[in-house]
């Protein structure tokens, strides 16, 4: 990596005029911009006025010493990142250890060798340059990720509306062709299922990207959870019908929660779609709503393919991952459950699941009841 040393400022803290002139001459010939101070007062004055990239610190500074001055520098947030190289006559193990303990990164013994001094200084400058490159690349990567997420959000938002309209059309057609036996009813039902799944994917993507970017608006309100579940079940019934799956509802009435209605619909839709997806044909899915002390509890129970213990552990790690970076690192799996986990926990609730391979799964959540 080619480094322009003229971009770096070095402060020499040295009370010997001869040593100071010698050091300045050596460093300025290499292109460094060099500033100097004879004591701690001049050093702090320069630090307040200039950007300093590295300090060459004489250990013996008249009445004070470089160790104590370095400790002072490291106690100030604005200066603690500046590397300090000690220049000293002292080279006992105790003095070397004391220098590193005070915050120094290296040391050069007097009388110093010019080549050794330059190599030690340039080594620290290369570290600084590498850190600056990493920091810049990290910021560029963050910006690229944010731009990607913004694009996802725009695409999901723009597609969500027409897909939602298409879903409504298929819902109407499904009802109107339900009694027909000419083959169109099955096609309409399949189209309705495809539209429902597309809408769910776009809805999850939109919520995930907006949440990652801090753009998601929460509008919590008092909801009758029973009524909300019945509405979601009605829209997903054609999807379950494709596999001849019976939705068995066991819902306790009168349970009210304080929650964002659109997000709660997404949560319920994701749990039901997953249950249908992993259930066998002609099976039954049980959906329960009941009160457990101050909590409203929702459970979706199927008798489908189930999951092994290993898959369950992997899924738990996947959906509970924190941060704005996508948790969907394994072929896009789990986005719906990540939405469920994330928003249930952000509303003070709890998400849970258990499963047994080849026997089925139970997914659910609990949220606080109103006035409890």
What does this structure look like?
The protein has helices at 17-29, 40-49, 66-74, 93-101, 114-176, 184-213, 225-242, 261-277, 309-319, 335-346, and strands at residues 9-13, 33-37, 54-58, 60-61, 64-65, 84-88, 106-109, 220-224, 246-251, 256-260, 284-292, 295-302, 350-356, 360-368. It is elongated and about 105 Å long. It has 2 domains: 5-112, Rossmann fold (3-Layer(aba) Sandwich); 218-372, Heat Shock Protein 90 (2-Layer Sandwich), CATH 3.30.565. The protein contains 10 helices and 14 strands. Helix 5 runs antiparallel to helix 6, helix 6 crosses helix 8 and helix 8 (261-277) packs antiparallel against helix 10. The longest helix is centred in the middle third of the chain and has 63 residues, at 114-176. The protein is 52% helix and 21% strand.
TL;DR of this structure?
The chain is of the alpha/beta class. It contains 10 helices and 14 strands.
How does the helix and strand content classify structurally?
alpha/beta
Q: How many distinct folded domains?
A: 2
Please give the CATH class of the largest domain: Alpha Beta
Count of β-strands: 14
Radius of gyration: 33 Å
Inertia-based shape: elongated
Output the CATH topology of the largest domain: Heat Shock Protein 90
Distance between the termini: 63 Å
Order of helices and strands: EHEHEEEHEHEHHEHEEHEEHHEE
**Proportion of residues in extended strands:** 15-25%
């Amino acid at each position: 990596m080619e480094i322009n040393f003229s971009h770096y400022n070095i402060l020499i803290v040295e009370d010997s005029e001869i040593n100071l002139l010698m050091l300045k001459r050596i460093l300025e010939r290499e292109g460094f911009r060099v500033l100097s101070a004879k004591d701690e007062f001049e050093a702090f004055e320069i630090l307040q006025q200039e950007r300093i990239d590295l300090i060459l610190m004489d250990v013996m500074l008249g009445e004070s010493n470089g160790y104590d001055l370095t400790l002072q520098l490291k106690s100030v947030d604005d200066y603690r990142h500046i590397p300090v190289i000690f220049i000293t006559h002292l080279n006992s193990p105790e003095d070397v250890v004391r220098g590193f303990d005070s915050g120094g990164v290296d040391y050069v013994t007097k009388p110093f060798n010019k080549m050794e001094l330059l190599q030690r200084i340039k080594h620290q400058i290369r570290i600084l340059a590498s850190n600056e490159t990493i920091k810049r690349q990290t910021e560029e990567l963050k910006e690229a990720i944010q731009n990607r997420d913004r694009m996802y959000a725009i695409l999901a938002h723009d597609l969500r509306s027409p897909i939602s309209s298409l879903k409504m059309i298929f819902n109407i057609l499904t009802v109107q062709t339900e009694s027909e036996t000419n083959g169109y009813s099955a096609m309409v039902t399949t189209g309705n299922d495809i539209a429902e799944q597309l809408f769910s994917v776009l809805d999850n993507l939109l919520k995930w990207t907006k949440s990652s970017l801090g753009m998601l608006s929460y509008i919590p309100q008092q909801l009758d959870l029973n009524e909300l579940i019945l509405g979601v079940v009605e829209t997903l019934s054609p999807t379950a019908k494709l596999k001849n799956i019976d939705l068995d509802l066991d819902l306790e009435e009168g349970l009210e929660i304080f929650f964002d209605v659109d997000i709660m619909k997404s949560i319920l839709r994701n749990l039901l779609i997953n249950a249908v997806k992993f259930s066998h044909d002609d099976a039954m899915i049980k959906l329960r709503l009941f009160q457990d002390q101050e909590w409203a509890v929702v459970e979706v129970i199927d008798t489908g393919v189930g999951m092994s213990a290993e898959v369950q552990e992997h899924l738990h790690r996947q959906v509970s991952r924190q941060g704005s970076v996508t948790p969907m690192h394994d072929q896009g799996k789990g986005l719906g459950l990540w939405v469920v986990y994330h928003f249930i926990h952000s509303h003070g609730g709890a998400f849970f699941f258990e499963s047994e391979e080849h026997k089925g799964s139970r997914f659910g959540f609990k949220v606080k009841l109103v006035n409890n």
